[in-house]
Design brief:
The chain is of the alpha+beta class and about 325 residues long. An 8-stranded antiparallel beta sheet has the order 1-2-3-19-18-20-16-17, covered by helices on one side. The longest helix is centred in the first third of the chain and has 16 residues. It is globular, with a radius of gyration of 20 Å.
């Protein structure tokens, strides 16, 4: 065995064991025109030894020439391309929230121009032996404030409130026998989750974001992988280890918004990512916090109207009720 081949085998094995960082290439030239504060990157590096294609957009949150916003629908869904046309051909359009196929409505928070227009679902019906019980999770979201600062938080929201109420740590879902879950119930749940010996009062704060979209679970906290699926009840069993197309957002310490899209369900070409792999990518990109969004057949990101990944649905772009948008003012 040659020295080169020995080194190659050892290097490949070592990369698989430590999950070597992906190699990203700037592909701005494929999506022009772009402002100087927005960049597009692509990778075809193997992901833990499996075929992989992914893109991410990096945008400077502090660039006042950029507008970070959302668009949503009522009782209907539109493809990302339709949202692109509807919003005057913005720079970026990407899918966001989970939604109901039956009602076409968001199942997560959506905030547009400081107004709460989508709400978290806080009641999940029990199954089997727990048919007559309910669980009440606190969903997560990523928001951008008027000061152009990003934040990932766990929220309480409903249609009777002007604001969402946020806490900066995951709370275990409450289990009881009522399908009603109000703000006071949420506050009680928080107080009961804190050990009395710590004598620290923890409460919700009004989450005054200009723009926000919900999803879940949270992938990254304080720059470290900490997936809060058990608290948010997004995926059951070992589903967090399944590989799928993924959409997610995060942000870095130097105020760069990162929008990640991972191709999947394309056998032998791009097999998708687990939530842990997705979280690792954000960590490697230097993000402080990151949030998983709706994936699978919904995953789609347009840059200047051009698709990035290949959509996994055979029919093409899936209509969705909400998108995140970056446009020039």
């Amino acid at each position: 065995m040659t020295k080169f081949f020995t080194i190659f085998i050892f290097s490949s094995f070592f990369c698989l064991k430590v999950n070597c960082q992906l190699q990203w290439q700037n592909v701005d030239s494929l999506f022009q025109p772009l402002p100087p504060s927005v960049h597009v990157y692509k990778t075809t590096s193997l992901l833990d030894g499996k075929p992989n294609i992914a893109y991410y957009v990096e945008a400077d949150l502090k660039d006042k020439k950029l507008d970070f916003t959302v668009d949503t629908t009522y009782q209907r869904r539109l493809t990302p391309s339709k949202f692109y046309e509807k919003n005057g051909n913005p720079i970026v359009v990407v899918n966001t929230t989970f939604f109901s196929f039956a009602t076409n409505q968001n199942l997560n928070v959506v905030i547009k121009d400081k107004k709460l227009v989508g709400y978290n679902i806080h009641t999940v019906n029990g199954r089997g032996k727990d048919t007559f019980t309910y669980r009440h999770p606190f969903g997560s979201a990523i928001g951008i404030s008027k000061r152009r600062e990003a934040d990932v938080a766990w929220l309480y929201s409903d249609s009777t409130l002007k604001y969402s109420y946020a806490i900066q740590g995951a709370i275990t879902a409450v289990k009881d026998s009522t399908n009603n879950f109000r703000l006071n119930d949420a506050r009680k749940a928080i107080s009961q989750s804190i050990e009395p010996s710590k004598r620290v009062r923890v409460d919700f704060n009004k989450w005054k974001m200009k723009t926000a979209v919900g999803g879940g679970p949270v992938l990254l906290q304080n720059g470290e992988i900490k997936i809060t699926n058990n608290e948010e009840l997004k995926f059951s069993g070992k589903a967090i280890d399944d590989k799928h197309p993924r959409t997610a957002m995060g942000y870095t310490k130097d105020n760069k918004l990162i929008i990640l899209i991972i191709e999947g369900r394309n056998s032998g070409i791009a097999e998708g990512a687990t939530l842990t792999q997705e979280a690792q990518i954000f960590k490697d990109l230097g993000c402080l916090e990151a949030l998983n969004l709706d994936g699978g057949g919904s995953s789609c990101m347009l840059v200047n109207g051009k698709e990035t990944i290949k959509i996994s649905d055979a029919a093409g772009q899936r209509p969705v009720p909400a998108v995140f948008i970056i446009k020039q003012k």
